[in-house]
């Protein structure tokens, strides 16, 4: 007697039941406006205004708006030039050139426990100018005091226009009254945080412009001394949260695992690794019990908040998933799961009993 294979039928049943399970969850889930949506809207509109201003700055300096800047935001830099430090993702840069990023940063800061009146310290590279502005706009909207350090160097497609680096962008936005704070320190960024690998002539010209803006230019090639000065400056403000945007080495560190930090909100834990002279600001603040928001892997961060990666259009204020939360009826979920599991187990048990019965029948026939 040929024994019937029950596995395909069981798999089909399991697939049907899982589909029903997912369907029930979708029916009994609720989408609601995020509790701080009004603050998100303020941040969105401020970032949008800042982006429009940056586009005007670039137009006045005859800096082109590139074709790969699909939404023509003006926030994307050149592919490669004399102050480009590393290879960056074009898709990630396009994703951050969206005022919805300011709304996302509001959620991240709230998730990190930041509230009105708190102090946030941030270390910005030039790689994600839009993301830097998103942090500034989010802090302004939340009535949070922000103290930030900026860098000149940028990866591909970032703020790498030699005529208009990010510290200069931030200064213009501040002077025009579009943001409430300016850089408390400026470094060259790039290798060693002193611009190694960048064109010395271009860097010298940029440094002169920065100093003329009366901004605090800082150079220190010795990593341990560099980070001590930066942290001492930040500590004057007594931060409640630290934000790292981009990949400046003084944020990430230079030791093993410096590229393996979690993304988004990082909550301090008791068993933090030992801090040494190679540790970056992220680990140092976590070790002190201060939460960190790490903004580097944009694809991962946007996925966690159901936001599109590399969108071809910018969603209007309030329409992005980041402005909403999804809740589920727990009783319905548990009931649906147990019902699905029960059907699968009952079917499996029936098939098992059927096979045992068929086996006994076959043995009886052979024994006669």
Features:
elongated; 46% helix; two-stranded antiparallel ribbon; alpha/beta; 368 residues; 8 strands; six-stranded mixed beta sheet; 10% strand
Order of helices and strands: HEHHHEHEHEHHEHEHEHEH
Unreliable residue runs: none
Approximate shape: elongated
The helix/strand class is alpha/beta
Q: Could you describe the largest sheet, including whether it forms a barrel?
A: 6 strands, mixed
Mean pLDDT: 89
Number of strands: 8
Distance between the termini: 16 Å
Structure, explained:
The chain starts with 6 loop residues before the first helix and ends with a helix. About 40% of the residues are buried. The model has no long low-confidence stretch (mean pLDDT about 90). The chain is built from 12 helices and 8 strands. The protein is elongated and about 100 Å long. A 6-stranded mixed β-sheet has the order 4-3-2-5-7-6, with helices on both faces. Strands 1-8 form a two-stranded antiparallel ribbon. Helix 4 packs across helix 5. The chain has helices at about 5-25, 35-60, 90-95, 100-110, 130-140, 165-175, 200-210, 225-235, 250, 280-285, 300-305, 330-365; strands at about 30-35, 120-125, 145-150, 185, 240-245, 265, 290-295, 325-330. The longest helix is centred in the last third of the chain and has 38 residues, at about 330-365. It has about 375 residues and is of the alpha/beta class.
């Amino acid at each position: 007697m040929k024994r019937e294979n029950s596995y395909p039928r069981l798999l089909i049943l399991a697939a049907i039941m899982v589909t029903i399970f997912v369907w029930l969850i979708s029916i009994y889930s609720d989408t609601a406006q995020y509790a701080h949506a009004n603050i998100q809207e303020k941040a969105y509109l401020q970032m949008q205004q800042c982006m429009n201003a940056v586009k005007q700055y670039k137009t006045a300096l005859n800096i082109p708006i590139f074709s790969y800047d699909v939404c023509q935001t003006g926030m994307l830099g050149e592919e490669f030039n004399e102050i480009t430090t590393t290879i960056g993702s074009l898709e990630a840069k396009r994703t951050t050139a969206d005022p919805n990023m300011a709304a996302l940063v509001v959620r991240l800061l709230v998730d990190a426990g930041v509230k009105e009146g708190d102090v946030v310290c941030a270390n910005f590279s030039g790689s994600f100018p839009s993301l830097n502005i998103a942090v500034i706009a989010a802090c302004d909207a939340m009535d949070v005091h922000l103290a930030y350090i900026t860098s000149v160097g940028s990866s591909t497609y970032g703020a790498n226009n030699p005529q208009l680096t990010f510290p200069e962008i931030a200064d213009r936005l501040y002077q025009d009254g579009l943001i409430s704070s300016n850089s408390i320190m400026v470094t060259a960024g790039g290798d060693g945080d002193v611009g190694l690998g960048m064109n010395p002539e271009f860097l010298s010209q940029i440094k002169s412009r920065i100093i003329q803006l009366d901004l605090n230019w800082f150079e220190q090639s010795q990593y341990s001394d560099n980070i001590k000065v930066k942290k001492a400056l930040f500590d004057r403000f007594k931060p409640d949260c630290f934000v790292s945007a981009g990949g400046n080495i003084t944020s990430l560190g230079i030791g093993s695992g410096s590229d393996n930090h979690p993304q988004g909100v990082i909550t301090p834990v008791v068993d933090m690794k030992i801090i040494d002279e190679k540790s970056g600001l992220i680990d140092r603040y976590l070790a002190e019990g201060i939460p960190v928001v790490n903004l580097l892997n944009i694809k991962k961060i946007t996925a966690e908040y159901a936001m599109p990666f590399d969108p071809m259009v910018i969603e209007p204020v309030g329409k992005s998933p980041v402005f909403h939360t999804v809740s589920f009826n727990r009783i319905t979920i548990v009931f649906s799961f147990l019902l699905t599991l029960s059907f699968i187990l009952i079917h499996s048990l029936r098939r098992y009993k059927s096979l045992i019965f068929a086996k006994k029948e076959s043995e009886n026939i052979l024994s006669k």
